[in-house]
Amino acid sequence: DGALVWFRRDLRADDQAALYHALKAARQVYCAFVFDTAILDPLPRADRRVEFIRGSLAGLDAQLRAMAAAHGIEHGGLIVRHGDAAHELPRLADELHVQAVYANHDDDPAAIERDARVRGRLSNLGIAFHSSKDHVVFERSEVLTATGSPYSVFTPYKNAWLKKLDDFYLGAYPVKRYAGALAERPEGCRSPIPSLEAIGFEKTNLHTLKLPSGPVGADELLEDFLERIDHYDQAREFPSVKGPSYLGPHLRFGTVSIRRLAHEAHRRAAKGSKGAATWLSELVWRDFYHQILHHHPHVVDHAFKPEYDTLKWEHGKHADALFAAWCEGRTGYPLVDAAMHQINQTGYMHNRLRMVVASFLTKDLGLDWRRGEAYFATHLNDYELASNNGGWQWAASTGCDAQPYFRIFNPVAQSEKFDAEGKFIRRYLPQLANLPDKLIHAPWLARPVDLAAADLALGKQYPAPIVDHGEARGKTMERFAAAKQHA
Ligand code: FAD
């Protein structure tokens, strides 16, 4: 009567759906994580997310051991393997002689495919595979229109989401109550969590960032954020201000429960906190994009709106050079460049800046949104296929409930509005530090005397703009007009 819980993007032991269901159903519950070479092999050797996961596994292991120890179970804890998960997991389940494997839903297309293979292999071994919702509040077809179709516009989706919400959906799974079913790890399964080096990775600068890992790290960030949540609606707009929660990677890897976060926000919103209501709305966006991906998996490499698959993006050597300048923060537009330095140095980028640089890539440089999406996918610590794809298609105007194509962000106006004093720009572009506030947003407009006073040689320490925004705007309007003819 044994079960195995397979942890994937749910690296915590509290309020964890799969763990709860396994503990309730079986008498001997093992817990495992597989460093999946199918996911890890294509990544760069220094990847903050791998280090974050490794740190989080230590936290999860500690939680599991403590829960087991409270029931007098001596060798509790996490079994960690390294290999192709589609093979390793069924092999481990077989070794442990369990009757069932429990996991939580992962609706990314690659994960669906992997899970189908795992399910097939387990079934050949006579082992059942159960999975549950855990990653979002409402998934798949839980929130539909009155006529039973999925929503593709956010506001009515959000209204329906809020209407459906009640304590049942936000209640925590009482895992601890059933922890007596945790099993001792067999002797051959007690090796420590492998080091980064052992799985072929290098140390990154993660330890210098304010991103503590694991459930304890999530608690720290949450506690800090709850003191600021009432001002979130205002503070979130300005990249130089500590406005958002920075919980993205914790939500991505499930070191904190979405039910707990939504509950905290909902409770405060009900008492009139505008900040909490706005934050809850962001969590709803997260669910929204997950259900879009579920119902419209073509968005992974196609525009949500088919006519926009005909958009003629720039190609060739010049386009490649523009793309490289964008990636490396050499566009000559300070806010864009500072934002790209932020993602390159930390793996984080402020939401406002994600919109600004995505708009710049697609509408100022005329480059395919998929190039930017792929860049974010390798660099963001909180990379989540559904949200990243949704965000990119929103900015590129190809998405479901997207920015209209004729509303094109002016990167200088965005800078003047959201980083008026140039604080954020100065943090990442110290060579511009001496420019006065009003010139820092567009240094090419500064007079030679101002540049000299700021000790700045344009074209040397900092590039001249690689495109003219006005001209680019015209080209973008034409590009979209041509595509619209296919509608
Ligand atoms: P907070 O502002 O504290 O928000 C809390 C949580 O709500 C976030 O962690 C996230 O899970 C969710 N959330 C917030 N905004 C959104 C949104 N617009 N869409 C979906 N979920 C949201 N978010 C990701 O989680 N992963 C991505 O890969 C990602 N890529 C993006 C790409 C582009 C081009 C754009 C415009 C946005 C993207 N976002 C992505 C959404 C948003 O920018 C980040 O979630 C947010 O900046 C993360 O910081 P935070 O945790 O401090 O967020």
TrEMBL record:
Enzyme's top EC category: lyase
The site feature described as Electron transfer via tryptophanyl radical is recorded at 313, 369, 392
| Entry coiled-coil feature ranges | none
**Entry note: cofactor:** Binds 1 FAD per subunit.
Pfam name, any one: DNA_photolyase
Keyword Flavoprotein part of the UniProt annotation: yes
Q: Biological process GO terms, please?
A: photoreactive repair; response to light stimulus
Family that this chain belongs to: Belongs to the DNA photolyase family.
State what protein this is by name.
Deoxyribodipyrimidine photo-lyase
